[in-house]
Design a protein that fits this description.
- The protein is of the alpha/beta class.
- The protein is 46% helix and 13% strand.
- Helix 4 links the parallel strand 3 and strand 4.
């Protein structure tokens, strides 16, 4: 039995309440209690204002992504934009100084926004907690709305609760909160404005900012964000415009917001300085979103036979294109006086097998040592028990709160370095099987409301599942062979899916057979296409929307 104590009311005091919100419709009845607290008329009016002001620009930028992909498919080279060479060459501009609580980010823990996770992450001992509405969450409406309640209550120190007789209480000095909204590509189909779905980005950002910005400022911090999946500096400009509008709307000073951008797409790697420049008055740095970056590397170079990669496990941070991307990111951030945050180790603690756990934790240690000695200012972890390992490494090698002084002036990265596909490894039948298993397990769990799952002692989220999905497609598309000499075909993958599905059903608890059937059919469709679809989460979202009672006419599908 869960008991909640919800007393905090962080609604902006000057905002009207009990107003009719013209043009907005909510198409689901789930989570009525949370809806009543979060989807107030005043908050919805703010969402309507965001949508009507910015959605046309968002749609134009998404169309620009499609046009760019068509150029890449036709052989256009990836390169640093010539029109912004002056921004990269100008040494005098810097980003905003760190806001309170963001000076030292040596360990950041990430996870979804359910109430128990929020308390455990904030109490973990990490410097910051990235509360994730994106890749670590399955965006059921209940999860999205109750997640907003949980974050509001955490900020107001009213989140303590009891579950099955156990008390969960926030510590006196919790981690600093950072929120990751969904990416620009994702809709929120359960809420429409003027008969169109609102942006998932604007929905998540808008509700969190509206309900909490004032309270965060009063408590000596501010509204801090992670921004995912951007592919162009104009998408960063859109976020900056949203920030300026939002701050003016509720009356907090401009430049109160801070945002860290995840560099997790191949096009963005060529525009790091431009992205920082667009957000310079709101920027708190860049992050190496390593798993999504590998996914994007494959997807953006989908027509290029020279970009075929071996088994997922062989694409490490030491391979050419990944090492170049990391070194360029650190150099760029420190040149502009902001944090360069490292990525996530996939390993998680292994219970009941001390030897296997030590092997896994040694991989984590090696990963964090590589990051801190490269010059990163912090790193990500996915499990509270890894905090001490990461913290010990960074405490030993990073004496101050950050390493902005590590300029990495030795680094010289050309476009060819960011495209270097020399990777030691091969495509194996076990690697193909592992990818199929990952997509089946994650996609099925996602449909059931779980956005991150442990699988074979690794943490799988949307990003790792996406690598697996597009790798399998890539191998089929280009007629790759496994180590036995067998050509990876549509038939090869189809038989493997049928063989692996029962194993996945046993390996991961709580999976539903009907969801497993949906995902198996989905993967078979993907590998038979000329091109893979853009995002698994976009493709499967209509199933979540339908489960929430949303009529099909309000849903967009890439399938």
């Amino acid at each position: 039995m869960t008991s909640y104590k919800i007393k905090c009311n962080a609604v902006h005091p000057l905002s009207p309440t009990a107003l009719m919100v013209t043009g907005l419709e909510i198409h689901t009845q789930v989570a009525q209690k949370a809806q009543a607290e979060i989807l107030t008329d005043a908050a919805l009016r703010f969402l309507v204002a965001l949508h009507r002001t910015f959605d046309a620009t968002r749609q134009g930028l998404l169309a620009a992504r499609e046009a760019a992909q068509a150029r890449f498919d036709a052989g256009a080279p990836f390169d640093f934009p010539p029109e912004t060479a002056h921004i990269r060459a100008e040494p005098s501009w810097h980003c905003a100084p760190p806001s309170p609580g963001l000076e030292d980010r040596r360990v950041e823990i990430t996870g979804p926004t359910d109430r128990k996770m929020v308390i455990n992450a904030l109490n973990s001992g990490a410097k910051t907690f990235m509360a994730d509405f994106e890749d670590a969450s399955s965006p059921t409406f209940k999860a999205m709305i109750e997640g907003q309640v949980n974050l509001r209550d955490a900020i107001c120190r009213q989140i303590d609760f009891e579950l099955s007789g156990k008390q969960y209480k926030l510590s006196p000095n919790p981690a600093v909160l950072i929120v990751r909204p969904r990416g620009w590509h994702l809709d929120e189909p359960r809420v429409t404005v003027d008969k169109a779905p609102i942006s998932g980005s604007l929905f998540d950002f808008g509700l969190f900012f509206y309900h909490n910005a004032d309270e965060l400022v009063k408590r000596g911090f501010g509204p801090y964000f992670y921004l995912p999946k951007m592919e162009h500096y104009l998408e960063a400009r859109l976020w900056n415009d949203v920030f300026l509008f939002a701050q003016s709307y509720i009356g907090v000073p401009h430049n109160t917001i801070r945002a860290t951008v995840l560099i997790e797409t191949l096009p963005a790697a060529f525009q790091m300085e431009e992205i920082l420049f667009e957000l310079r008055n709101h920027s708190s740095g860049l992050n190496c979103g390593r798993w999504d970056y590998i996914f994007s590397f494959i997807k953006k170079r989908r027509a290029d036979r020279n970009a075929i990669l071996p088994d997922r496990k062989d694409v490490t941070m030491e391979v050419g294109f990944m090492s170049a991307y990391v070194r360029l990111l650190i150099q760029t951030c420190h040149k502009r006086k902001v944090a360069a945050i490292g990525g996530m180790s996939a390993q998680i603690p292994i219970k009941g097998d001390e030897k296997a756990n030590e092997v896994a934790m040694n991989k984590v240690r090696a990963d964090k040592l590589r990051e801190v000695t490269n010059g990163h200012d912090g790193t990500w972890i996915a499990h509270p028990l890894i905090n001490n390992i990461a913290r010990e490494i960074f405490d030993q090698y990073m004496m101050g709160p950050n390493q902005y002084h590590v300029r990495r002036e030795d680094v010289r990265i050309a476009a060819s370095d960011l495209l270097d596909t020399k990777v030691s490894g091969r495509i194996t039948s076990e690697g193909v099987r592992s990818n199929v298993s990952a997509v089946l397990a994650y996609g099925t769990a996602w449909l059931g409301g779980n956005g991150c799952i442990p699988l074979n002692h690794l943490m799988e989220d949307a990003a790792t599942a996406e690598i697996a999905r597009v790798q399998v497609w890539q191998w089929v598309r280009h007629g790759a062979r496994d180590e036995t000499g067998a050509t990876i075909t549509v038939e090869y993958i189809g038989k493997l899916i049928d063989a692996v599905a029962p194993e996945v059903r046993k390996a991961v608890s709580g999976l539903r057979d009907d969801h497993l059937i949906i995902v198996a059919k989905y993967i078979k469709d993907q590998v038979s296409r000329q091109w893979p679809t853009e995002f698994l989460t976009s493709d499967l979202m209509p199933y979540l929307a339908a489960a929430d009672g949303v009529p099909a006419r309000w849903q967009r599908s890439a399938l």
